[in-house]
Amino acid sequence: MTAALAQLPPVPAVPAAARSLFAPATKWPRSGIATTSAVQRFARQASPAAASDPSLLCVDPGPLDVAGGAGRRATDSDTVADDWDQLFVVVTARLAQILGEPPATGMVMHDAVADCMLALTQLQALRARQRGVDRRLEGKLRRSSGALAAAQVELRQARHDAQHDSLTSLPNRGSFDVHLSQALHRNDRPNPALAVLFLDLDGFKPVNDRHGHHTGDALLRTVASRLRRAMRKHDMVCRLGGDEFACILSAPGGRAQLSQIATQLFDAVSAPLEVAGLTLKMRPSMGIAQCPSDGDTVATLLKHADAAMYRAKRSQLGFAFFDRGVDL
Asked: Catalytic annotation on 243?
């Protein structure tokens, strides 16, 4: 082969249109129209048959891989591959034309062109196989990315479910404990000013027993919604379980402001409500414990707020502040 190529005549100058096709990939046309036009110009100089037959310039890029979703998106590598395919068609068409002509320079030229034709065909087949492999890998990558995104959504949902009450969508007891513990142990506030409000619904059990759990659940969802709307933006309300709720009140500002907050919550919950065609009226009882005067741990504050709530329930006070001399 080397000896045969050594006997070939000097290579003629490559037309300008052809040189543009052999330019670096970063300078190739980036649209099918421009690329096809350049190939056609070269085809007219290299092979009248290729220039006159549009089918030679229309290369099927292969089936679209839609296994991963909406299909492949065209990339620069796809453009480069299409440019190569079109150039391959034109060059091989010209080589085929030369092979069909009477050998003008003897069998040496004929054999060299045949070898080039074979090498180009083998290279094209190799590129086609590699492009198929690339597409399959891209499909797997898209499917893996989709599965990862779905797993992340499921993880976020699982985390939300673990931290929230399934009936009311309020933060649950575990979330309450975590948030209160974090508030109590902030490094910049060794003794933070906050309060815990414990709320219980008077007479909820008789309503639940008489009208059924469906009505009781609807009532609890309504109460939870009212509490959420009545709370300040930087405070937190949770459902501890049953008809018991708890609130973390940050920067309460003393008993006067706490009394105002408790009154607002009382009015919001005790307003008449419509549930399953029934008009019901629930009365809450609330107990309030302040940090650090009434405790500085999650368990102590919740215990003391609960004790104050039971005193408010017994005396029908609406709400009461924890009093060590009375509640212990």
From this structure: yes
